[in-house]
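Allow me, if you will, to draw on your knowledge of protein folds for a short while. I am sending you one protein, given as its amino acid sequence and as whole-number tokens for its backbone shapes. Kindly check, if you would, that the fold set down in the tokens agrees with what the sequence suggests. The record follows directly beneath this note:
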Amino acid sequence: MRLVEKVIRRRVVYRGGYLTAERWDVRLPDGRRARRDIVRPPDAVAVVPVDARGRVHLVRQFRPALGRAITEIPAGLLDRGETPRRAALRECAEELGLAPRRLRKLCVFYASVGFSTGCVHLFLAEDLRPARGHTDPTEFLVTEAIPFRQALRAALANRYVDAKTLLGLLWAARILTPGAKARRRS
């Protein structure tokens, strides 16, 4: 069986400042029809910034969809025409006031493949230096720097709840944790 759904009809049901929602009528692989709701947010970046002392820099901010503040890695949307690498550098400067001299791409992931087209480009930022960023006047953040191992333990204990932070810390651990290279080879 060929796993493809043919779009018969597509219409925009919502267009906002951040995302667009579409309703699709599709033909399933077995010939039946079904309806799909697709959300189109902009692509984003997320950064695991680790300083020379082995501390990861995190931000705490209120998330309206959850109705509470959460701790997470710095992240943001790609501006029109901006590369993921440039956006990662900009987000570090804006949210932390830091600029990494070394930026490594860890992965690209889709947080909600059942209904969303938005992807997140995930980076590890190292060799951090002070930088000036243009802060967003609508963004209220509290920053903290904690030992990377402590943050990793918190992630594994489910004290962080968003996908980008969990994935970022786990991917970074493959590089930053002693013995990780040897374990990867075996």
The mean pLDDT is 93. Residues 6-40 form one domain. The radius of gyration is 19 Å.
